[in-house]
Amino acid sequence: MKFIPMVLAGMTLWVGAAAAGDPEAGRTKAETCLGCHGIQSYVNTYPTYHVPLIGGQHAAYLEAALRAYRDGSREHPTMQANAANLTDEDIADLAAYLAELGSDS
Hints:
Layout: H1 3-18, H2 23-29, H3 31-37, E1 43-44, E2 49-50, H4 59-71, H5 77-83, H6 88-100
Antiparallel strand pairs: 1-2
Helix pairs in contact: 1-4, 2-6, 4-5, 4-6
């Protein structure tokens, strides 16, 4: 019975951390991201992959994805390379900014 409150507390802390980013700081940091993720129907050449639009995604999801690329638990060589040098603050800022964008960004 103690497990459920611990999980809920952990989720609350995780979601709270996702909201802590600075969208204004994320705007500049996101220029590289939007070079691929801001183009409607973009497909990169190699490896051939449909690049999803990420504007309007939930900040917590974006943070989790970037952290997973950074630590290697989510595989995509280009994204792993882009996330490798991001700090926790960078990730929070990017997620906050991108979450504010419309889904057409």
